[in-house]
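Sequence, structure tokens reproduced for absentees:
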Amino acid sequence: MNLKNLSVAAAVLALAGLTGASTANAVPGTVSGDGGNRIGSLRANGDAYVKEGGLSATWVHEYEHTIRIALSGKRIGVLKGDGDARVKEGGLSATWVLEASNVTELALS
């Protein structure tokens, strides 16, 4: 097996592992960058959850009526179904700040 095929096989296995690890009623989430240790999940009912620490950490409910979640370092952002973009920085229980309304896309850096 050459290096290109090995890389493709590794990527497929990694994606398969992520798919198999998702919980019932969950859609793909996001993993925080910049050395962060958070994983976010957007559930089919619009509830956004984040967990911090090890893979067996407890999921924390962050927001409802969410259509997108984004994580970056210590920031968590959600885009709500009504177009409100909210972001918080710090711990999982930090205060949400309304960044903008009438939003169609959300990205954090």
Remarks:
- The radius of gyration is 15 Å.
- Residues 3-21 form the longest helix (19 residues).
- The CA atoms of residues 83 and 102 lie 5 Å apart.
- Strands lie at 26-31, 38-43, 48-52, 60-63, 66-72, 75-80, 85-89, 97-100.
